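User: Can you fold this complex?
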Amino acid sequence: MTDTRPVIAFDNVSKSYGGAAPVLDRVSLDVREREFLAIVGPSGSGKTTLLRLVNRLIDPTEGSVRVEGQDVQSLGAVSLRRRIGYVFQGVGLFPHMTVAENIAITPTLLGWDGARISARVDTLLDLVRLDRTKHRDRFPAQLSGGEGQRVGVARAIAAEPKIVLMDEPFGALDPLTRDALGEDYRRLHDELGLTTVMITHDMLEALLLADRIAVIRDGRIVAEGTPRALMNGEQDEYVRELMATPRRQAERLKTLSAP
Amino acid sequence: MNSQLTEALARLPAYLGGHVAVSVTALLLGLAISLPLALLSMRRPALRNVLLGAASVVQTIPSLALLALFYPLLLGLAALCERAFGASFSALGFLPSVLALTLYSMLPVLRNTITGLNGIDPAIAEAALGVGMTRRQSLIMVELPLALPVIMAGIRTAAIWVIGAATLSTPIGQTSLGNYIFTGLQTQNWVSVLFGCVAAAVFALAVDQLLALMETGLTRRKRGWVAAGGAGLALLTAAAVIPGLSQTRATYTIGAKPFTEQYVLASLIEQRLRAAGHSAAIREGLGSGVIFNALRAGEIDAYVDYSGTIWTNQMHRTDAGPRAEVLAEMAKWLMQEYKIAMLGGLGFENAYALAMPRGRAQALGIRTLADLARHAASLSIAGDYEFFGRPEWNAVRKAYGIGFREQRQMQPEFMYAAASHGDVDVIAGYTSDGRIAQFELVVLDDPRHAIPPYDAVLLVSPKRMNDEALLAALRPLVDAIDVTAMRAANLRASGGGGASPGEAARWLWTEIERRKGR
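Assistant: Here's the predicted assembly.
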């Protein structure tokens, strides 16, 4: 994880709707290659807006967003989205398509041939630890929450993107499933050499999975650093509050496991 | 009963063919217009509101009125076309029916398509964009498939509405299953009415079930089911329409207004033409205004009208004269204005006449309309759907100063019985109707000649005025039918008689021959 050029660069980005207070206020942030960045913040802090600027589901009012060195405004939104994986909050699978069809959607849009798509779907089912024969032809309604989001992850990385954006991907899952899925994804991130930006409001999840954490509040980045740096530093009132719970949990666990 | 059923079955290919042709065309046209409009309005709330508002307004117009409105509209357009391009189209039957039914089919399709597309979870729509779909791909791959059940429900509703409303296209000249219902109602042939209703319902249900099969096939993605449903619909349409197409078009078309006497006379003319070796068909159930214009335009070749009707409705005369003068003046006017040939009178009158039960009239001392005027304020009157809007009624009111306590509109077939049972006191009946005698009613005299004479006359279209074959076949009917013969034939063909109009016409012809032979 040595220093490399940024894969995603936010440069003084603002987003506002009409005359209301801006959702994002002059945000600058770099995401480096192969980095796993978590963006943590409360609801309404602007974290989802920040994520959507990357694949142009939203365009900025001011400033620029660059992906692999190119200003996204100069790229076609559709082709940009096809080369960036996106895992949606609350799954977002297409209910009328089978698991295989959901996973195959972006390769299909890119015009891959049938055999290549079919092989890729099998590979992906293995990667996200789903059963090739059992799950392939099921519809989303027939899956558990965890299975659904595994398909969501497989769909996001189906067209072999370098970048994956995740919008509170594991928020709706029970703690066990959530842990297992988080770890599985982290493994995929490393094996496939992905660059991941994950949004979460759960600081513990961010601390456990991410290489680096950016804390956002009221449209501004209030803290940024590695989990270790955030754990030990005392920057901001809000960040201190955020860190309090994981810290207390860690200390409690330490006393419990002491002989 | 059995012979009525046999006769109804014999007409099924023609009626069902017409019904299917008009309703399927209207439905396809309605879909072709509504679906793109609904898609166009997806991201345009203003357009959406206008569309739904307009479609709702159309829906509030009674379907019969909507169908009736398209006829004069198209007639005007056809006239404009004739003037502009020297060629025209038929404003009768198929075209106005299709257009009105198309409009009628639009609301359920528009509303359900719009509702279905708007009802899609925004998260799903966003996911479609997020995985890299264009707007169009999102519509085709995600939004339309998800909205499909709601859209199909709209299409099925539209299909049932259109198939039901198509029965009402009979009065504007489109052959449909409505012919059973309208004719049956006029001749009190309930087997025919029921047959028409059941046939329309069975057809509607079949279409609905086939559409349901396609819907299930689409949602469960069973291509075979979709194909089976589609093939079923195509087959049903083909089976209904093709026999009608392969039938050679009849050389002559005879028009008939929607009442028993007209069915009998049209059948008589048809039988005469067939006896002379020509092919002939009847277009029945046409309203007074519709049938005259259809003759003018050559869409029908001949029909029987009544001098008083032409005199008041077409010539807009409010005076009335002796029978012979009215006939002569009318023949001249028809030829000059429209090149319509009046072949001659049939020999009887079918006038509007106020009638009441004989006993009641005697008790009150009523013999004429003048006598009636003195008692009218405490009496009720019933007339057909036309009468109270006709100039004759105004003339009667003016000439005698008559004002009734209550006036009601009624199906003509029920009037006579209603008067005899005392449900109404006076009816505006028809002098050639056999039921005047059957129900012991008495026709009141009109000493001031407020009601013009109503001689039955044979009219021939401008196109056929020199067609010797047609004229030769019709001539034996001129001055051949007296009012007693006509009343007897009418009585046979209506309710009590149990004969079909065709059978009554055959009886009338033997009667004509017998009297000639004497």
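Chain A has a mean pLDDT of 89. Chain A has one domain: 6-226.
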